[in-house]
Design a protein that fits this description.
globular; 378 residues
Length: 378
């Protein structure tokens, strides 16, 4: 008879297991790098220098991590409700539409102190509405959330292409992009804010949306573990039958979880559009919504874990670009392969190493259990 699984301490389940998965991914990636004639240790050194070696690199790493925080939180929150939201890409896209419509309509009327919060609300609101449609379909029509959310990614992309080409395109411009937002809608860059406070920092696209992302992490943590609705949402995710028996409205929880998830994904557009691009453009999501799935899995759907996983993917994004520049034999496609390996080991193979840690944990506990039994007999 197979022995029951041993419960692992949180520091192993949330800390060591994801770390082991990442190390295995880098071990396989190191073999690939070695096969093209590059020393893996040199590659790691270049990647770390490219991500943290100078102030501009740190800014770019945190800028990329900001996008991953938003999309990772979106997936993580839905996970707690037992929902697999893989529509973060489309929800972020439509969130960008909300930002663009608010700013294009009001940037000539309102100052930045009012305009920027309205743009953030536009991003969250449009992203939430886009996520609520598949949520309603699952709650009231039985449609599977995975199928509907992935289909809505394609619908969002097609809708944005139509609007940018035919409606929102700037007059006299060939590329599908809107006119530039007024300066009042530009989210302040972090290096400019720090310079005004007397601190030097290298120039980068990092802006105040990083603080918004961190604030969202705190709010998600408070909501999930310190509110009644968060408790009900997690209860439904753990055991829908028991939650229903306890009087929890499962349909309402599906709508609540997906609405908040879509709002978080939609706010990714704040970083890109009013933080960096300063106009509405096509394909600004750049796959961040899909990578958010791996971020949530690696971070064990906890806001703190999501931040750490987002930082890792920010390092891969920024340091990988430096790696491709430094070594001619390492192409940009190989960097994508390395990122894919991290996603593979953190996602599809997330629990591959768990039996190893369970066995090790049992072996380490036996001497202490035997010593405790001897003390009781004495």
């Amino acid at each position: 008879m197979k022995a029951p699984r041993q419960p692992l301490p949180a520091w192993i389940d949330v800390g060591l297991i994801p770390l082991a998965n990442v190390m295995l991914a880098f071990l396989v990636a190191g073999l690939i790098v070695l096969a093209v004639g590059v020393n893996p240790l040199d590659a790691v050194h270049v990647m770390l220098i490219g991500a943290f070696g100078y102030p501009e690199a740190i800014g770019y790493t945190l800028y990329y991590a900001t996008n991953f925080i938003f999309t990772g939180l979106a997936v993580a929150l839905a996970f707690h409700a037992g929902l697999f939201n893989i529509g973060g890409e489309g929800q972020a896209y439509i969130g960008g539409l909300g930002v663009g419509l608010v700013v294009l309509a009001l940037d000539g009327l309102l100052p930045g102190i009012f305009l920027i919060p309205l743009a953030i609300l536009g991003a969250a609101g449009f992203g939430a509405v886009w996520a609520l449609i598949p949520a309603w379909l699952q709650a009231y029509r039985g449609s599977h959330i995975v199928i509907t959310t992935i289909m809505f990614n394609f619908i969002a992309a097609a809708l944005m292409v139509y609007l940018m080409v035919n409606v929102l395109i700037a007059p006299g411009v060939m590329s599908p992009e809107s006119r530039e937002f007024a300066a009042s809608a530009h989210l302040p860059l972090l290096h400019m804010v720090l310079r005004s406070a007397g601190f030097a920092m290298g120039e980068s696209p990092l802006n105040l949306s990083l603080l918004l992302a961190l604030a969202c992490c705190v709010l998600v943590w408070v909501f999930l573990w310190h509110t009644r609705w968060g408790y009900e949402l997690r209860a439904m995710g753990q055991n829908p039958g028991a939650a229903s028996y306890a009087g929890i409205n499962g349909r309402r929880m599906i709508l609540l979880a997906m609405g908040l998830s879509g709002a978080l994904a939609g706010m990714m557009a704040v970083n890109e559009l009013i933080g960096v691009q300063h106009r509405l453009i096509l394909n600004f999501t750049a796959g961040y919504g899909f990578t958010g799935i791996a971020v949530a899995l690696m971070g064990r759907s906890h806001p703190f874990g999501v931040v750490l996983a987002s930082l890792l993917f920010g390092v891969l994004q920024q340091g990988g670009a430096e790696l491709a520049f430094e070594f001619p034999t390492i192409t940009r496609e190989m960097v994508v392969v390395i990122q894919g390996l991290v996603i593979l080991f953190s996602g599809a193979l997330a629990y591959m190493t768990r039996p190893w840690f369970e066995s090790l944990f049992v072996l380490l506990r036996r001497p202490s259990a035997a010593a405790a039994a001897g003390t009781e007999r004495a």
